[in-house]
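Sequence only, no structure available. Ideas?
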Amino acid sequence: MISFNYETDFELASEDLVSNWVSNSIHNEGFKEGEINYIFCDDAYLLDINIEFLEHDTLTDIISFDYTLGKLISGDIYISIERVKENAKDFDVTFDNELSRVMIHGILHYCGYKDKTEADQSEMRSKENYYISKLP
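Reply:
I predicted one. C-alpha cells follow.
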C-alpha cells in the first residue's frame, strides 16, 4: 500500500496515478509492494529529521527509511518540496520531472540500487530516466 502524507501546502494532482506508477515500477524490478509512505514536507521539517536521525546538519531533498524485508518493499520517504523546487531550477527541469525523479530514487534504493560511485550514479540515473518515461 502506498500512502501520501502532507506536512506542507503541497498536494499531488493525482495520487492514484502516482501510486500506480510506483507500484508498477516496484513490480518491474521484481519486488512486491509493502507499506510505502511518502511524506511531503518543507526544508525545516526535513532538516530536523536529518539532524535527529542521521546527525547531518544540512538541507537535503530526500531522506528515506528502508524497512524492506526480502522482496517486500516498505519504507518511509520524506521529500522536501522546497528542495525539489530549488533543484528543478538548478537542473533546468520542470518541478514535476524533479519530483518524479526524487520519488522513484527512494524506491530504487529500496530495490538495491546505490549511488555512491560514478558507475552506480550512472546506473541509478538510467533507471530514474526509464521509470520517469513510464509516467502517463
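The first helix runs from residue 15 to 28.
Hope that gets you unstuck.
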